[in-house]
Amino acid sequence: MEPYSKVVAGLRDAVTAAMTKAIAAGELPDAPLPGFIIEIPADTKNGDFATNAAMAGAKSFRMPPFKIAQAIVKNLDLTGTLCERFETAGPGFINFFLGSDFYAEVVKDILNDPEGYGSSDFGKGEKVNVEFVSANPTGPMHMGNARGGALGDCLAAVLQKAGYDASREFYVNDAGNQIEKFACSLEARYLQIYKGDEIVFPEDGYQGADITELAREFADLNGDSYVSRDSAERKKALVDYALPKNIKKMQEDMATYKITYDKWFFESELHKSGAVKAAVDLLTEKGLTYEQDGALWYKNKEVVTQKLLREGKSQKYIDNLELKDDVLIRQNGNPTYFAADIAYHKNKFDRGFTTLIDIWGADHHGHVMRMKGAMDAIGCDGDRLNVVLMQLVKLVRGGELVKMSKRTGKAIQLRDLLEEVPVDSARFLFNTREANTQMDFDLDLAVTQDNQNPVYYVQYAHARICSIFKALAKDGIMPRACADEELKLLCAPEEKELIGHLALYTAEIINAAKDYDPTKITRYVTQLATLFHKFYNACRVKGENESLMQARLALCDCTRAVIKNVLTMFNISCPDSM
Known about the structure:
The protein is α/β, with parallel strands linked by helices. It has 24 helices and 15 strands. 42% of the residues are buried.
């Protein structure tokens, strides 16, 4: 049990026992014990923990809260709670103050298992699929993919730390409409090499320079041998050449970004296996499709409306959504992206994942409800599909918006970013703002090597601690195990504040996992670095009496361990010197 949970559990038992004793002594009426909370107050100057038990018991005991509080504290025994004293305040709050045993125990817990500290079994080994980036393989990856990659990878890491069996997945859209458009674009550029302007480029084709480059490479290899061939054969050859190259580039970019996926899932496999047809047939069997204008439609409006009504939403609310039905099979007999998406998410459930987490761009917000509804419709629990919507990223340099790469003069791609900005900076900075907020990514800040750069600031704190140990080692001073009484010497305000923050780490991991928000951890570790610098400036390590010096070295070691723990979890380097 993490330190603060241990205290909460102990105080709950102590308050419950005190009320039971007070009832037995006739100091409180014989009535059912009230439900109450133990919490960390907003202002800890008045106590490290507080309970509302007296206010909560006013109705049950039919007494003023202040008198109930007096009866509780009269019978309160703090033995085993790690708190050393209590006091009443206001209308009946009872405040508790942590004792030296608590701070000593936190230090011991960390040093007993530095790498494992922060881990818990909160997730009970639940199988969670985290799908992120999933960029279209028809072109280079962009800034949204950069943000999604950092968020998704670090979220999976947090979930693993919190006891979930989390799997990272990249969904490759290598089939369907966008691949046909890719083929037509490549074909036009290839033919233009030999036939010039008489070949009209498709209106909705991909205009990027990468398409022209791929067509030129294909021509260099094959010459004009495909000019006279059938269009279908020509397009297939072009896609067979270009698509693997694009996918390989995506995999290389993700590796450069320090992201390793457990699975690269290819949409084409869904079509080959018949999974898309099976999903459509299942919806048809359930009476949730109909034919119109030569296409097969899914009754999205009906399904989502029923789902929202079950959730208590009003008809007016539903009407304002302007729900529409969706095409599953086009007039030409080809399935839509939506049909494949239904089959893909069903496949994830079929593979044994009980929770699905998708990280999508905010422009996909309209797709969330229909996917959840579709999961319900095929017999999966749509509420187990969780979508993290991610807002846009703007690149800024010198306070000005940046749209073009200095190197290429074209729109900045993920690869351009990683050539300009250290990977550690990118991974950390993209995790400093919640996914649902727009973000200005400061290119100047990302390459700055001073305390203005958050990742540098945290890494420097780790390096600074390492330098303390190196300097002491030169003087022949080595850290050693401390006795409990020595650790209880850590009682300065800065020491207690630092240890208190260290004690919160496991709870922060759990909260980040529950909220699907790894930015909680970057904020946590940044604050940890701040509290360490505050401690170090206020409390001398060398030169104090030997016992206090060793206790402070133990605290330095704890801080170093937790900083390394966070950075390692997020696949960010943790230098010993800077």
